[in-house]
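no rush on this but wanted to send it before i forget. theres a chain ive been looking at and ive put its sequence and its fold in token form underneath. i want to understand how the tokens follow from the sequence so walk me through it. thanks a lot i owe you, the record is right below:
>
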Amino acid sequence: MSRQGHKDAPQKLMTPEEIQEMCPILNTDIVLAGLFNPGDGHIDPYSLTQALATGAKRYGAQLRVRTEVTGLQRRPQGGCGRAHQGGAGHTHLERRQRCRNSVWNLCISGFWAREVGSMAGLDLPLVPVEHQYMVTAPIPDVKRLKREIPVLRHLDGSFYLRQEREDCLVVGPYESPDTMKTREDWLTRGVPPGFGKELFPSDVERLSPHLDAAMELVPSLKTASVKSVVCGPITYTPDVLPMVGPTLLPNMWLAVGF
């Protein structure tokens, strides 16, 4: 709360009674207090990226999908020019905008950020790991809710939980360095060419400690069926904070490491 004055994002402390009213499915007997961020939430990635693409094209951007990026040309005035493009493979969006007679570039390449960054001369400290989350089958207690519950983050249990559609829940862990699985082959050889929406084999055993804590907080999970466990790539920085903002290169900006 002492840091809140630095951001234009309201938040407040909540009592267990207020939490119970907002999230009736919780066992608040084990809750001491909560921190509510009304601006927090979750998004559908496909809808969001399509909206950004529509807005970018409206401002004159050219989007090339299913295009492998094999190199970037540095411009004398800063930033990068047109990408050398190969055949089908990686999908990469490079956004450029004229601003006061200059060109700025934004690297938003997800788990390809290390590769794309290196093309521009950046050595980005990003580590690819396997992140997994569980999706439940419909839960009657969730279906009876009158409104969607906020996204929950349980610090002691190290997991997040949110509502999926009107009657399911999603539980995902914040794994510790001792348990998280890094993609060593991606670290040494890079992302496999052509990798897109593929997933990795799940490892429910790694989820178990987080699910035990989630079942204590949300008793309905004890009898819920598992619909699916999704495991895919995500990149973290060494301090687990995202890399957002300008780089040491002129007119080169980052939004990676989330």
Summary: The helical segments are 16-22, 45-58, 113-119, 140-143, 184-189, 204-217. The longest helix spans residues 45-58. The CA atoms of residues 72 and 83 lie 5 Å apart.
